[in-house]
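Appendix B. Raw example, untouched.
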Amino acid sequence: MKRALMTWGGWPEHEPEQCVQVFAPFLRARGYEVIIADTLDLYGDASFMRSLDLIVPVWTQSAISREHLDGLLGAVAGGVGIAGWHGGMADSFRESVDYQFMVGGQWVAHPGNIIDYTVHITNHDDPITAGIDDFAMHSECYYLHVDPSNEVLATTTFSGDLLPWISGTVMPVVWKRQWGAGRVFYSSLGHVASDFDVPEAREIMQRGMLWASK
C-alpha cells in the first residue's frame, strides 16, 4: 500500500481542511494509506518521511522551523513526491526561500480578487493535461514569481483591466518539476474547496498527485 501525508493549516479562508477532504477519498480509492495532520510535526520525523510516496501540503502562510523544513525538503530530494495547489503550496512559509525554490514559485498578487479567467492548456501530450481543453474559472487568478526551469502545462493571460502594466502577461497556472529525486507538481487553482467542482481543475489536480507520487 502506498502512503500519502496531507498536512493542513494556516490561513483558514483557503478552507484547508475542506480541501483535504476533497482529495483524501480519491487517494484512498487508489490504494493509498492517507495520513492527515493539522501540524507540521511529522516533517521532523525523517524515517516516517522517507516511508511516504506522496506529500500533499495544504498550508497557507504561517512559518516553518528549520527542522521541519529540512525534513520536508530532504524527503522530496530523496524521491518522495509532492503535489499541491493555490496558496496551500505556493504561499506557504513566505520567509523560506528554500521552500519556494523547491515549489518553483511564490504567490505575490491576485489582481481583482475573484474574477473570470480562462486556463489555457499548453501541453496536450503530457499525461496530466492530455484530453483536457481550455476552461473557464471564476476565482482568484494568481500572479506568481516563477522558476524558469518549471515545465509549464497550463497558463492564463492577464487582461490588464485592473493593472494596465501587466496587460498581456502570460502566467503559468500548472507546472511540474524535479527536486533532487522527487517530483514536484503545482496548480494555482483551488482558492476554496468549491473551485474543484470545476471538473478540469479537479482532474488536473488528481492526475498531478498521481504523477508526483513515487
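End of appendix B.
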